[in-house]
Amino acid sequence: GQQLNQSPQSMFIQEGEDVSMNCTSSSIFNTWLWYKQEPGEGPVLLIALYKAGELTSNGRLTAQFGITRKDSFLNISASIPSDVGIYFCAGQRWEYGNKLVFGAGTILRVKS
Amino acid sequence: DADVTQTPRNRITKTGKRIMLECSQTKGHDRMYWYRQDPGLGLRLIYYSFDVKDINKGEISDGYSVSRQAQAKFSLSLESAIPNQTALYFCATGDRVNEQFFGPGTRLTVL
After folding, report:
1. Which of B4, B21, B49, B98 would you mutate first to test chain A, the one with the most A CBs within 10 A?
2. What does the DSSP 8-state code read for residue A81?
3. Which pLDDT does position A95 carry in this prediction?
4. Do B98 and A98 touch (CB under 8 A)?
5. How far apart are CA B108 and CA B64, in angstroms?
6. C-alpha distance from B1 to closest chain A C-alpha (Å)
7. What is d(CA A91, CA A72) in angstroms, rounded to the nearest whole number?
């Protein structure tokens, strides 16, 4: 089946630090999505990317659709305590019936 | 009011019991999905439906069934629950570009 490799698995950072996480695959994807899940809640869509090379921001979050279409990156600048949660990447391929494939998630903890 | 609601939010049951998890949405989306979340495995697709007459198996459909009662309602059933079906279950809806929107989840424990 399809697989997305998401790293790092977890991060424990100091408040104010920048955060980077990424997602890679051996397959090409047509869409990359980044979600955040907080405890007791469902994942919430942060950023959607539709074109190779696309760079999109949402406040302190910036995500990029890799040029090879096989990877995507999410950066969070100047982290704050409410950034805590699990971040998931998800990819969509037309050949896969437009279903989403999810990475295993990056657990982010912020030390204030 | 939430756009995607799931009931129940928590359920503890015994091996062999039949369980139904329900999902309702007010977003007007045609596409609905059921996922299962296990620690370290992300979300895995169980079943999905692109409209009321359409039902498709996902990655891990064995042991599960679904019913799409209306555009707004999509239920997941475990006919005979087993302990390894203990997990967090999410319903999601999607628009044409497939940006999926998730419900709050149901935590199911099978003893």
Report:
1. B98
2. G
3. 76
4. yes
5. 13
6. 15
7. 9
Min CA distance, B4 vs chain A (Å)? Answer: 10
Q: Residue B80 gets which letter from DSSP?
A: S
pLDDT computed for residue A15 by the predictor: 97
Residue B41 touches chain A, beta carbons under 8 Å? yes
Retrieve residue A38's tokens.
Answer: 């907080």
The rounded distance, in Å, linking the Cα atoms of A2 and A75 is 24
Higher-confidence position of A98 and A67:
A67
Greatest extent of chain B over all pairs of C-alpha atoms, in Å: 39
Distance, in Å, from the CA atom of B8 to the CA atom of A63, rounded to the nearest integer, reads 35
Distance CA A17, CA A2 (A): 33
DSSP letter for each residue of A52-76: TT-EEEETTEEEEE-TTSSEEEEEE
The predicted-structure confidence for B3-32, as pLDDT tens digits, reads as follows 999 999 999 999 999 999 999 999 999 999
- Please name the amino acid found at residue A79: S
pLDDT score for B99: 81
The minimal CB distance from A42 to the residues B44, B98, B105 is found for B105
Q: State how far the Cα of B74 lies from the Cα of B85, in Å rounded to an integer.
A: 19
A42–B90 C-beta distance less than 8 A: yes
Residue A39 near chain B (CB below 8 Å): no
